[in-house]
């Protein structure tokens, strides 16, 4: 079975769940944060000097990022809940296909939906700049650079959430672990680069034009974490098989 076939099967499975509606509603809710904030308190931001995009991200991204990460955790739990609920995981193990294909398929789906959410949020920020910052011009390349960076920093959180959900048969256990990790990330000191590399803390960082070197370090760290988590998933499969 190829990865494309596995991906097609995963798409059919999620139609029976609330996965797609959850991401659609969650994306709209997260995108509404800057719009509502500007509608209620626009005078706080219009007088600030600097780039409107940076002003909006500084003011709204912490809450938006928390909603995004919560959505990722819930989505990962749903993707594996459908496997464990009716003992489908045992049936999958009997098929002539590598288990890592199923994990990769779920990761691709969750990454695609997270990208969809990021696009909605970018559209909301663009609307805020167009509607409230009348004299400001929106640079599409700058918008793509900033939100592309935010999307890259979400990838380790996505893969780790899936790995936790794969390890826990009970959806509420994996959901609880994810929520604890999120609130732990919010309590970590923002000035500590090492602690900020925690996968659930990385999505809270925005692109900094003033310190491009540090932003590049975050991208490199995200790539290293993805490689480490991919290796951890392969090791987990082997260890789980040895105990079955």
Content-based structural category: mainly alpha
Gyration radius, to the nearest Å? 19 Å
Relative helix content: over 70%
| Morphology call | elongated
Q: Measure the end-to-end span.
A: 24 Å
Query: Which blocks of ≥5 consecutive residues have pLDDT under 50?
Result: none
Secondary-structure element order, N to C: HHHHHHHHH
Characterize the largest beta sheet: strand count, sense, and whether it forms a barrel: none
Q: How many helices? A: 9
The fraction of residues in strands falls at under 5%
Average pLDDT: 88
**Assembly type of the shown chains?**
single chain
The total strand number stands at 0
Structure, explained:
The structure is a single chain. The chain has 9 helices and no strands. The relative contact order is 0.13. With 244 residues, the chain is mostly helical.
Short summary of the structure?
The chain is 77% helix and 0% strand.
Q: Main traits of this protein?
A:
0% strand; mainly alpha; single chain; 9 helices; 244 residues
SSE layout:
Blueprint: H1 3-14, H2 19-41, H3 43-46, H4 52-84, H5 88-93, H6 99-132, H7 140-167, H8 171-187, H9 212-242
Helix pairs in contact: 1-6, 2-4, 2-6, 4-6, 4-7, 4-8, 6-7, 7-8, 7-9
């Amino acid at each position: 079975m190829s990865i494309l076939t596995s991906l097609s099967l995963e798409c059919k499975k999620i139609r029976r769940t609330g996965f797609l509606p959850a991401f659609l509603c969650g994306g709209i809710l997260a995108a509404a944060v800057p719009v509502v904030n500007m509608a209620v308190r626009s005078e706080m931001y219009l007088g600030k000097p600097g780039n409107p995009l940076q002003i909006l991200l500084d003011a709204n991204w912490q809450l938006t990022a928390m909603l995004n990460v919560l959505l990722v955790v819930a989505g990962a739990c749903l993707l594996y809940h459908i496997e464990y609920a009716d003992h489908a995981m045992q049936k999958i193990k009997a098929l002539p296909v590598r288990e890592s294909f199923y994990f990769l398929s779920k990761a691709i789906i969750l990454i695609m939906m997270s990208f969809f959410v990021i696009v909605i949020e970018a559209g909301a920020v663009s609307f805020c700049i167009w509607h409230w910052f009348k004299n400001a011009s929106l640079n599409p390349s700058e918008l793509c650079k900033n939100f592309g960076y935010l999307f890259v920093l979400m990838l380790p959180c996505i893969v780790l959430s899936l790995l936790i959900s794969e390890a826990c048969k009970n959806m509420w256990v994996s959901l609880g672990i994810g929520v604890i990790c999120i609130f732990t990330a919010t309590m970590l000191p923002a000035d500590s680069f090492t602690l900020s590399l925690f996968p659930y803390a990385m999505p809270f960082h925005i692109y900094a034009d003033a310190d491009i070197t540090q932003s590049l370090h975050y991208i490199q760290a995200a790539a290293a974490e993805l490689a480490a988590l991919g290796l951890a998933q392969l090791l987990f499969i082997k260890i789980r098989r040895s105990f079955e």
